[in-house]
Amino acid sequence: MSKKSVVFTGLLLVVALSFGGLLIANFGNVKQIIAAGPQVDFKTAPEGQNTNPQLQSLNDAFVEIAKSVTPTVAYIEVTTGNDNSEGQNKQFQLPFNLPPEFGVPEGPDGPQGRGSGSGIIISNDGYILTNNHVVKNASDNGIKVILTDKREFTAKLIGVDPNTDLAVIKVEAYDLPSITIGNSDNVQVGQWVVAIGNPLGLNSTVTAGIVSALGRNIQLGGDSYAINNFIQTDAAINPGNSGGALVDINGNLVGINTAIKTTNGYYQGYGFAIPINLAKNVATELMKNGKVSRGYIGVTIKDVDIKEAKGLGMEKVQGVMVQDVLEGGAGYNAGLKSGDVILTVDGKEVNAANELQTIIGSHHPGDEVNLKVFRDGSTFDKSVVLKPKEENANQSAQNTTPRETENEGASKSFESIGITVSPLSSSMKDKFNVENGIYISDVKRFSEGFDRGLVEGLVILEADKQKVESVEQFNSLLSTKNVGDVILLKVMSQDGNKRLIAVEIK
């Protein structure tokens, strides 16, 4: 073969191979004409890339919080002697029990339950702060604590305080990581907070949000002595978070996660935590004495609203109104009266009932507090020596359900406030244990009285601080009122509880 033939044959071979490569690359509609090599050149961020320093600082803060606080929050598993879940407020769930699919085993000694919660290590020798509802029904040796380093302990119950839903337990361990306590009085609406706990069996979970509100009263506990003064947050809190930590951006403990507002039992954006300043005082006393000895004024109270302020002759809405005074209690001995408005406690303004409860609840029996009180257009100071809780107060009229008025006179309807009243018979006075009053026999739906909380079955004892002796007298009092005026009624329910209700004349 000539040299020219060899060159021509080589060119044909190159062309053939190139054409074959094109066919392979386009086979099956594959568009690439060059096959990728085994090495992929990923785009990576260059070292020292400039980042917004404020965002980086915030990011670093969250990372540091997770690193420093998570080891101080323990997982708590509780075995109970019974499943005591009845009577809980469905709107405000205590995020403790695991979901139903985890089941409730039956023990040999009757019904048993098992749930999980969280706890915060507050001392390096093993004291742990949690919620009362997490541990209150624990069986003997039924509280197990698991730390983030996987160590397990059986905890001893040191003490509980149902009025604040707090409890302290202890494990026999030393040199434990303990949390740094913050100051909940400095917490502000809108500030960042982080919730750390063990929701839904997912240990050591960190969520972030802001403080949504302060001083929330969610009526948790169903007891008039319960202290409801919660920090509200939108940091995700779910069943199992109870007893966990709510910390600020510096990792300092500002609250104990306790409850959620929900319609389905899970997080819907509203979580509530007990302020640490309140929890710290309770924990200290539980560790010292195993129980809390708390002072009481011996009054029932409520927030003042615009109509009550008008009815009391106040220039602006402020303070906390005394609804009733317990005979023989600290307030009674100091001369407090129904209709008084407490403006300050030891120089600190109070404008919510739960705020007043929180301040008084930090004192002990025998402590003296100084109140500034508004009454009948003037203010004065009053010193009150607190007393211990009176048991079985306001029980004199329990279990009475009078329905018949045994008319000793005609009933009368008052359209201006939307109620119908009847005289009290002598037998009804005995049942209610009162000497005077008239009986509310009907309340018109959506009337002023209805909207203000008047219901059938209440007894009106006073109107504008005057004793009501008859329907005719009550009619005379109302006849002096003009449209837009407010009349202040003192009423008593069938269980003996008294309260003040301000009603506007329509």
Describe this structure as you would to a colleague.
Helices cover 20% and strands 31% of the residues. It has 506 residues and is of the alpha+beta class. Strands 8-7-1-5-6-10-9 form a 7-stranded antiparallel β-sheet. Strands 23, 24, 25, 26, 27, 28 and 29 form a 7-stranded antiparallel β-sheet that branches. Strands 11-12-13-16-15-14 form a 6-stranded antiparallel β-barrel.
List the helices and strands and how they pair.
Blueprint: H1 3-26, H2 53-69, E1 73-80, E2 92-93, E3 106-107, E4 110-111, E5 113-121, E6 127-131, H3 132-135, E7 138-146, E8 152-154, E9 156-161, E10 166-170, E11 192-197, E12 205-216, E13 230-233, E14 245-247, E15 253-261, E16 271-275, H4 276-289, E17 299-303, H5 306-312, E18 320-325, H6 330-334, E19 341-345, E20 348-349, H7 353-361, E21 368-375, E22 378-385, E23 412-414, E24 419-423, H8 426-432, E25 438-443, H9 448-452, E26 459-463, E27 466-467, H10 471-479, E28 486-492, E29 498-504
Short description:
Helix content is 20%, strand content 31%.
Rg, Å, rounded = 34 Å
What value does the average pLDDT take?
A: 84
Structural class estimated from helices and strands: alpha+beta
Gross morphology is: elongated
Strand order of the largest sheet: 8-7-1-5-6-10-9
Assembly status: single chain
Report low-confidence residues grouped into runs of 5 or more.
21-31, 83-92, 96-110, 392-408
CA-to-CA gap between the ends? Answer: 122 Å
Which range best describes the helical content: under 10%, 10-25%, 25-40%, 40-55%, 55-70% or over 70%?
Answer: 10-25%
